[in-house]
Amino acid sequence: MCTGKRTLLYDFTAEPGNNELTVKEGETITITNPNIGGGWIEAQNSRGEIGLVPEDYIEVKQKIAVAPAPSVGNTSVYSVFSPSRLVSSLFFPVSFSHSLFQASNGNDPWSVWNADPSGGSSNNWASNPEGTQTGKSAAPDPWASVSHGHPQAYQGPADDDEWDDEWDDVKSTGGYAESETGEGGAMQRGGAHATSMKIALNKFPGFSKSGPELYLLCKQLAKGKDRLPIYMGEVGPVWFYPETQLDCVVADPKKGSKMYGLKSYIEYQITPNTTNRPVNHRYKHFDWLYERLLDKFGSAIPIPSLPDKQVTGRFEEEFIKMRMERLQGWMTRMCRHPVVSNSEVFQLFLSYKDEKDWKTGKRKAEKDETVGVMIFSTIEPEASDLDPVEVEQKCEQFSRFTKAMDDGVKEILTVGHEHWKRCTGPLPKEYQRIGKAFQNLSSVFTSSGYQGESTLTDALTAAGKTYEEIAQLVAEQPRKDLHFLMETNNEYKGLLGCFPDTIGVHKAAIDKVKEGDKLVATSKITPQEKVTMAKRLSTMSYALQAEMNHFHSNRIYDYNRVMQLYLEEQVKFYETIAEKLRQAHSQFTTM
Amino acid sequence: MCTGKRTLLYDFTAEPGNNELTVKEGETITITNPNIGGGWIEAQNSRGEIGLVPEDYIEVKQKIAVAPAPSVGNTSVYSVFSPSRLVSSLFFPVSFSHSLFQASNGNDPWSVWNADPSGGSSNNWASNPEGTQTGKSAAPDPWASVSHGHPQAYQGPADDDEWDDEWDDVKSTGGYAESETGEGGAMQRGGAHATSMKIALNKFPGFSKSGPELYLLCKQLAKGKDRLPIYMGEVGPVWFYPETQLDCVVADPKKGSKMYGLKSYIEYQITPNTTNRPVNHRYKHFDWLYERLLDKFGSAIPIPSLPDKQVTGRFEEEFIKMRMERLQGWMTRMCRHPVVSNSEVFQLFLSYKDEKDWKTGKRKAEKDETVGVMIFSTIEPEASDLDPVEVEQKCEQFSRFTKAMDDGVKEILTVGHEHWKRCTGPLPKEYQRIGKAFQNLSSVFTSSGYQGESTLTDALTAAGKTYEEIAQLVAEQPRKDLHFLMETNNEYKGLLGCFPDTIGVHKAAIDKVKEGDKLVATSKITPQEKVTMAKRLSTMSYALQAEMNHFHSNRIYDYNRVMQLYLEEQVKFYETIAEKLRQAHSQFTTM
């Protein structure tokens, strides 16, 4: 039980509503309670402020022995998490100290493929001091928020202590789950898909470097209800789409607390259109769902990261509202996906009956073996097999397109962010000054003592006030239109960030099939297995094409919709200003 | 006859269309022709460019002997002008190196009274580097133009050589005219009214320091047609206003040249609504008129400076257009003034029949003795005499108001200038980038190979183009509205800059009258003269009130009009944008 002074190893920014304490690297704090658990300790800074700080952030003089808090097996968790934290702290400090966009899909996965021009643009946001400054203005710019100089992954502990009470059972399943949830969990908060993919592939000893064979060469394919048919639609291969599309509403965030109120959390109410019965989930549950979906479908279907935990707002309400909005966006996208929305784990999340049902379902989902590339074993295309050359062409085309779109999306985000800053910063200030200048001149005129002055002075004052109103309109506008344009593009940025992994699996499979003859020659595989590989590669290609077609149709809908919304609001905006000015104009007279 | 290399003592910026050569202090040039005359020499710079440079700007190794150019008595002129140039170069480099506003009414006359807060604001403009930068953008900002680091007065030579051919006669009238036109002429280009006032008062030996007495104590007042009646109107004392208001159109600038085409000049066509017969005048003629009006009416009526010679534009056409516009503004204001417009010299300027008529009229005007404070001797108020206390109160009130309005006007100019820069600089660039971002994304989408893409991509491209059009609109808008708001306020800034002098004369008179008893006691004046002084002070006060009432009625009209114009254009601007966006919106669809 050690307390006393400690030095901080990293910056840590408190997440609103969690009784956390913001501290700077090198700052000295006094530990007031080392027994919080979950990798947290309570500390007091020089200004006397008390709050929770992640244990790992504190210089270790001697290992802090953490007394298990009630119902929490901290030490195990602690040891589980620290390695991944270390890794991420070594790998990601730079990429993660970027804006939340950057963070939202980890360090730019494209950079692995080739230099990403717009990667730089993202950095601009964070490096730009104005970014935060705008936060002070009428409409704070959520796009300007940056993860505060330490890896997202470090935020892991914020919730992890709360995982455990429900995760002991998982731990006991030994083997991969632990390290996976540990690393995966920690990584996911940074949304580094490459890593999570690796996890999915590593899961099966001996295949760590050769993911695709696991499926290409496996003896028997899945049977029964798990099957995922692919039909030939007008646009080519398509998933099976249900008549009624699943949908849900994320709403009514409620604050709960635990650990004697020392740590609080938000619970969201999710109501699916199927049962119309609300279920409650906390962020960590979404996180759990995300990891399940990623493990199960990640090789075939890009599963976008959850909204970043680091979404920050000046006020807690703002922060909660923002996160909820993004969780809603994420859920909507998952609901819209015919395969994901139809999956058992997703249905469980949306419509579990009670705690028991939930826990049983969770346990089952975590034991699911049809994960990683094995998902392809459930896919059944109705069409005839494709030639490997054609498969490769398709794959190349998709990878080119997704890369190009990623650049385009990033450009819009950069430009939009700049525009947001101008609209909430210098521009309204200028209109305000114009308004003031008119009003000042008006009050000078009032002092003229000349008769018949009032018409002009009243008009001039009105004109001045009008420009002050315009200043207000300008400052508030981004929240009304630019906001959604940014949210949508940010969501697509995250989604596009998943394709390199998904496509990577296919490239690996293509390469393996190319080696076919050599493998036969060296009798690594039988001629029959070579045929099977080619057939299964064709299946993978149908899956990828179905997914791309799904992506395209959604993209076309989403961009039509967001542009309609954006332009609609823009029109209103300019019309309102014109009308105000028309009224101001009517007051001047030169008879 | 000396040629060869010379070093420049000051920067000199060529005035467009005058075959002048821009040179920098310290630069070495080669004199290619020292015999241009009029204080000019022809020189070649290191880049081989040849043009005219003022002789005085060049380091004097040995006095350059100037051979009289045909029809030009240069040496005499030269000697006449150089002293004043020297004076101004010593006194004004700082104040004149400000923006053209600053220059247009010389070094802030208010500063003599008390520290002028907004004086600083004017300086900002010049000191602001962006100022010039905007010159490069779509709509160059005339407000950003600054006199290029050397006193305005130095520009004198640019026209002075052309004065002489018509001024030899004046010179021959000996005495004051020479030094006056010399000093006054040079000073006037800087518009330093304090100085010009002094000139008017200095004109009569012995009264140099006691201007007002000249009138307060003069033996007999002017008779006949010169008289200026003052009536009591609704608003108080008013000048006599003619039924039909004089007006004129300044148009059709034509380029002329002289000295074998080495020096060119612009001739404007002025057509008064009275004769409807156009007369031609060059800038120097306006300048001559200005000086006559200033001498004659300056004590009673603020005569605004001519538009600054240094108005610069990127292109000659722009420069000429701008100067013409401002000469028009100046003439309109003079035409609107019942006293000025009715004066003989003004009528001469507008409607001389031929060269002979013009020259005779000029000579007469220059011999006019009813100048300076003597103008009051022609004023005849119909109302009864005012009490000196009341006179002082009125005077104080006017001086407070004009000072306050000067501040208000300067504020609008500062703010307007900032806004101009934003609208022509960063803002359109941003809209352009938004437009590009949309178009880029559109072209990425086109490459999707997915069918049914075109509706979105067409709409997205159209939206992108729309924002590029908006960028254009934004950049061009200031020329359509802000320009006139700025011009009007700039004009008023110049006008207000004259009041300290006009009011100063009154304050001097008031003080003198206050000394009345003392002067009688010390028998400097007779009791009768004391009574006369009070009576004449009352006359001066009526003149001042009439002038203030004239100013107020014009001001109310001008500001109503310019605000109407400004807001009208602003409304159009925002409506146009709204309409464009509405069209862009209509192309998106989410069926």
TrEMBL record, chains A, B:
Region of interest (Disordered), ranges: 112-191
Bias type Polar residues, positions: 119-136
GO (cellular component) term, any one: plasma membrane
Pfam families documented for this protein: BAR_3_WASP_bdg, PX, SH3_1
Domain PX: 246-356
UniProt feature, compositional bias: Acidic residues: 158-168
An example Gene Ontology biological process: intracellular protein transport
Primary site of residence: membrane
Family affiliation: Belongs to the sorting nexin family.
Record's protein name: Sorting nexin
Species per Swiss-Prot/TrEMBL record: Sphaeramia orbicularis
Gene for this chain: snx9b
